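COMPLEX REQUEST
Ligand: fe (ii) ion
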Amino acid sequence: MTEINYTQHWFPGTRDELLAQISQQLKPKRFAHVQRVEHTAMALARANDVDVEQASVAGLVHDYAKQRPAEDFEAAIRAYDMDPDLLNYGNAIWHGVVGAEFVKRELKITDEDILNAVRHHTTGAVYMTKLEQIVYMADYIEPARDFPGVEQARKLTEQELGLGVAFQAKHTLQYLVAKDKPVYPKSIMTYNAWIQRYPTV
Ligand SMILES: [Fe+2]
Ligand SMILES: [Fe+2]
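STATUS: Structure written out below.
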């Protein structure tokens, strides 16, 4: 179990209260995943001089909206005047980009760094703060992840966060193309930016 007492009000309540709200939204398997992401994000925060409590909150909430029905996302895209092109994608994109709006309104989390970490955890972004990079990587390398290349991803991330980000951007793009799946334009921009910064992955 992760032992951390919230004192900084990234979330207006205790960690147990946050866990209770998240557990109402997620099935047990997904709930266990977000706790592993929290744990990994906290370790990466310690190693990269990022606030550990902020990383805990961001890790726990990153998939808050993952199991909501499509109608909720479509309604939110319209209600909050978001880019209508979003309607051409699905849960994989929505639960981050649109999910952040649910995190903000329902969990009363206002820190833009945490909200951007949620927004960008599936697509990445051209510019990502250290916290955003941490959540993006923690989601990819948490202990239960088991895919070819995950050990390399863990090693690179330990070496330098940005190396991990470039690796994930590249491999996710390769995976989508190989499966004849459409690529969200922002994911291509993420790849372009990070592969130029870290050409060796
Ligand atoms: Fe996710
Ligand atoms: Fe996740």
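REMARKS: The two ends are 34 Å apart (CA to CA). The pocket of fe (ii) ion (ligand 2) is lined by residues 33, 37, 62-63, 139 (CB under 6 Å).
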